């Protein structure tokens, strides 16, 4: 099937493209980019005037809960949510049951993703067997089967010696270690950021120091081992300063931020105590939020990820202390970035494409996708003016635990193409 997208504003900093043009998709590839293109026989013409066309969006940190917790999300329902959110690629974290720590588990995910037939699913393998932090996982086997990166996300690897071994081992392959930075002896029992929020509410605090110390440790291990390091869901101003310094020294260090840490802080938790605002790491202070905002705009933060963490109603509809950690995010990430940063003119479209498409592909060692002849036709078409409210019905994923429920947002993906197949058509998942 061929498609001619007419009159979209195409943005791709990789080929210095930022103009209104036509794009022809044929045989899974971008077949032509130009003005006044004529549709070949049997080609579907899509009126894309007023919309933006960008290289397909990538979310390099999601939890699809499959296998093991399919009541929260499956690879199929997660892929539907990703597609609805405008993504062509997602990288899935290995804290499944069993943990994704062997080649067979990587193959399971790729097989199920193929059956779903929507976005590309790029499995991240565990660093240690069972994410127990004791023995190396089958890292070589997982590379062979297609693991795009390695992480024990859900925890930090607590032992510095074990983390060193992991990084030495991974450094033999062209892969990055994504580190959930948290020293658990500092965060045990914590349910909310330590400081004003924990004191006022009388709840166990979760200190920023737990993240900052482990970021420091992992940067030094990166220096020692040469293994590329990616800091997952960075949430503190000091942690970001450490990443900035490491980058300035030329170390192979990158980091990501979530929309919830960019657009919410600990003061948003009261008065409602909405447990959808309980996540790991916790919402931090307004000052941390301001530092992350600066970091995503100035290039210190490399990409935006959702940490899409689906949970069932009974795991959230309870007291704050016992609620599970996490919020879904795939279907609100792009709309939030547009509403809060791009539409008000604080972030350029070029920068949006860098943080949501170009940089995550680089970090995951995926082939680049460009809006130029011959590239894979993995593309996202965006209506920056579409207004909607985040409601349970708007979310097509299996779980509805969104920290942004009830928000009014402007801008969303209308169409997605994956290898030239139209997986989202006028806002409807194929
Ligand atoms: N972020 C969360 O609050 N939860 C994640 C775990 C994680 O990303 O560390 C989960 O798997 O539920
Ligand atoms: Zn994590
Ligand atoms: Zn996570």
From TrEMBL:
<dbReference type="InterPro" id="IPR011059">
    <property type="entry name" value="Metal-dep_hydrolase_composite"/>
</dbReference>
<protein>
    <recommendedName>
        <fullName>Dihydroorotase</fullName>
        <ecNumber>3.5.2.3</ecNumber>
    </recommendedName>
</protein>
<feature type="binding site">
    <location>
        <position position="153"/>
    </location>
    <ligand>
        <name>Zn(2+) 2</name>
    </ligand>
</feature>
<dbReference type="Pfam" id="PF12890">
    <property type="entry name" value="DHOase"/>
</dbReference>
<comment type="pathway">
    <text>Pyrimidine metabolism; UMP biosynthesis via de novo pathway; (S)-dihydroorotate from bicarbonate: step 3/3.</text>
</comment>
<feature type="binding site">
    <location>
        <position position="280"/>
    </location>
    <ligand>
        <name>substrate</name>
    </ligand>
</feature>
<dbReference type="GO" id="GO:0004151">
    <property type="term" value="F:dihydroorotase activity"/>
</dbReference>
<keyword id="KW-0378">Hydrolase</keyword>
<feature type="binding site">
    <location>
        <position position="153"/>
    </location>
    <ligand>
        <name>Zn(2+) 1</name>
    </ligand>
</feature>
<comment type="function">
    <text>Catalyzes the reversible cyclization of carbamoyl aspartate to dihydroorotate.</text>
</comment>
<feature type="binding site">
    <location>
        <begin position="63"/>
        <end position="65"/>
    </location>
    <ligand>
        <name>substrate</name>
    </ligand>
</feature>
<feature type="binding site">
    <location>
        <position position="180"/>
    </location>
    <ligand>
        <name>Zn(2+) 2</name>
    </ligand>
</feature>
<feature type="binding site">
    <location>
        <position position="311"/>
    </location>
    <ligand>
        <name>substrate</name>
    </ligand>
</feature>
<feature type="domain" description="Dihydroorotase catalytic">
    <location>
        <begin position="50"/>
        <end position="236"/>
    </location>
</feature>
<dbReference type="InterPro" id="IPR050138">
    <property type="entry name" value="DHOase/Allantoinase_Hydrolase"/>
</dbReference>
<dbReference type="GO" id="GO:0006145">
    <property type="term" value="P:purine nucleobase catabolic process"/>
</dbReference>
<feature type="binding site">
    <location>
        <position position="63"/>
    </location>
    <ligand>
        <name>Zn(2+) 1</name>
    </ligand>
</feature>
<feature type="binding site">
    <location>
        <begin position="325"/>
        <end position="326"/>
    </location>
    <ligand>
        <name>substrate</name>
    </ligand>
</feature>
<comment type="similarity">
    <text>Belongs to the metallo-dependent hydrolases superfamily. DHOase family. Class I DHOase subfamily.</text>
</comment>
<keyword id="KW-0862">Zinc</keyword>
<feature type="binding site">
    <location>
        <position position="307"/>
    </location>
    <ligand>
        <name>Zn(2+) 1</name>
    </ligand>
</feature>
<keyword id="KW-0479">Metal-binding</keyword>
<dbReference type="InterPro" id="IPR032466">
    <property type="entry name" value="Metal_Hydrolase"/>
</dbReference>
<dbReference type="InterPro" id="IPR002195">
    <property type="entry name" value="Dihydroorotase_CS"/>
</dbReference>
<feature type="binding site">
    <location>
        <position position="233"/>
    </location>
    <ligand>
        <name>Zn(2+) 2</name>
    </ligand>
</feature>
<dbReference type="InterPro" id="IPR004722">
    <property type="entry name" value="DHOase"/>
</dbReference>
<dbReference type="GO" id="GO:0004038">
    <property type="term" value="F:allantoinase activity"/>
</dbReference>
<keyword id="KW-0665">Pyrimidine biosynthesis</keyword>
<feature type="binding site">
    <location>
        <position position="95"/>
    </location>
    <ligand>
        <name>substrate</name>
    </ligand>
</feature>
<dbReference type="InterPro" id="IPR024403">
    <property type="entry name" value="DHOase_cat"/>
</dbReference>
<dbReference type="GO" id="GO:0044205">
    <property type="term" value="P:'de novo' UMP biosynthetic process"/>
</dbReference>
<dbReference type="GO" id="GO:0008270">
    <property type="term" value="F:zinc ion binding"/>
</dbReference>
<dbReference type="GO" id="GO:0005737">
    <property type="term" value="C:cytoplasm"/>
</dbReference>
<feature type="active site">
    <location>
        <position position="307"/>
    </location>
</feature>
<feature type="binding site">
    <location>
        <position position="61"/>
    </location>
    <ligand>
        <name>Zn(2+) 1</name>
    </ligand>
</feature>
